[in-house]
């Protein structure tokens, strides 16, 4: 599912990743201590870290191979990315943020109406991000990622700041997308109950030599 052998030199430190996980994983969970490099790994996979050197393959797509001067641009990777902080466009309304890519014909499971209802953002469509709470912003960010016709999804602690009731509904929906449409996903969280619900296996980035652990998942029977 994920095959990464690369490093990135940042001011004061070098982050190195050597990870290989089984192909049959549809949703890979990632956890690890704060600052261990989870967000940076997602950014490398998404093609947002141009200084990263090495090899990156995700869901059988070879996206980077520095030795062969191969680097697929972020915009060609068809990834829906939900960042830890929503990163909405401040000058656009919620509706414009969600429809930013102007997609008319959504993929099955990702229909605009369904996404809007499930994320419960219909009543927010005319507002600007400055007039949203943190949890509302995050729900809009998830809606935007899901309606962008993604072939792959990367989630970086996407439910941060979202209240319990919405969390349960959103996690159910994401799990359903995974089971019904087999969308390859990576889900970063420090919460085991979220990872159990959504992931087929989890990497602990702190454990360099034993990175992959299967978590029991009560919903696997649907898969
Ligand atoms: N642009 C940058 N310049 C310099 N250092 C950076 C940059 N981005 C990240 N880092 C450093 O790289 C390391 C990994 O950061 P990263 O954000 O990937 O960690 P994380 O595991 O996602 O943390 P958290 O769980 O707190 O979000 C940290 O030490 C961080 O300070």
Description:
The chain is of the alpha/beta class. The protein has one domain: P-loop containing nucleotide triphosphate hydrolases (Rossmann fold), CATH 3.40.50. It is 27% helix and 24% strand. It has six helices and eleven strands. The strands form two sheets. Strands 7-8-9-3-10-11 form a six-stranded mixed β-sheet, sandwiched between helices. Strand 1 (2-10) and strand 2 (13-20) form a beta hairpin. Helix 3 runs antiparallel to helix 4. The mean pLDDT is 89. Adenosine-5'-triphosphate binds at residues 10-11, 15, 32, 34-40. This is ATP-binding cassette domain-containing protein.
Task: Kindly summarize this structure in a few lines.
With 223 residues, this protein is an alpha/beta fold. It is built from six helices and eleven strands. The chain has a single domain, classed as Rossmann fold (3-Layer(aba) Sandwich), CATH 3.40.50.300.
Work out the helix count: 6
How many strands, which pairing sense, and closed or not: the largest β-sheet?
6 strands, mixed
Can you write the helix and strand succession as a string?
Answer: EEEHEEEEHHHEHEHEE
Radius of gyration: 17 Å
Mean pLDDT: 89
Q: Could you give the distance between the termini? A: 17 Å
Name of the top-level CATH class: Alpha Beta
Q: Which stretches are poorly predicted, pLDDT < 50 over at least 5 residues?
A: none
- The tally of beta strands, per DSSP, is 11
Strand order of the largest sheet: 7-8-9-3-10-11
Strand content: 15-25%
- Percent of residues in helical segments? 25-40%
- CATH A-level architecture: 3-Layer(aba) Sandwich
Ligands and ions found: adenosine-5'-triphosphate
Q: What gross morphology would you assign?
A: globular
Structural class: alpha/beta
GO molecular function: ATP binding
Domain ABC transporter: 1-223
Keywords: ATP-binding, Nucleotide-binding
InterPro entries: AAA+_ATPase (IPR003593), ABC_transporter-like_ATP-bd (IPR003439), ABC_transporter-like_CS (IPR017871), Molybdenum_import_ModC (IPR050334), P-loop_NTPase (IPR027417)
């Amino acid at each position: 599912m994920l095959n990464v052998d690369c490093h990135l030199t940042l001011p004061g430190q070098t982050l190195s990743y050597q990870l290989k996980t089984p192909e049959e994983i549809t949703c890979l969970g990632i956890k690890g201590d704060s600052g261990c490099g989870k967000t940076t790994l997602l950014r490398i996979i998404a093609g947002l870290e141009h200084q990263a050197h090495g090899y990156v393959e995700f869901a059988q797509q070879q996206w980077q191979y520095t030795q062969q001067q191969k680097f697929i641009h972020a915009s060609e990777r068809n990834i829906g990315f939900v960042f830890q902080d929503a990163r909405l466009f401040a000058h656009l309304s919620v509706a414009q943020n969600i429809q930013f890519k102007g997609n008319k014909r959504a993929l099955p499971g990702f229909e605009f109406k369904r996404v809007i209802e499930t994320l419960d953002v219909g009543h927010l469509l005319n507002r600007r991000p400055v007039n949203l709470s943190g949890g509302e912003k995050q729900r809009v960010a998830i809606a935007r990622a899901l309606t962008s016709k993604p072939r792959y999804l990367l989630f970086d602690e996407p439910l941060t700041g979202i209240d319990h009731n919405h969390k349960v509904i959103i996690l159910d929906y994401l799990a359903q997308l995974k089971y019904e449409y087999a969308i390859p996903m990576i889900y970063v969280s420090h919460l085991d109950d979220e990872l159990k619900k959504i992931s087929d296996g989890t990497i602990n980035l702190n454990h360099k030599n034993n990175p992959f652990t299967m978590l029991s998942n009560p919903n696997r029977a649907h898969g």
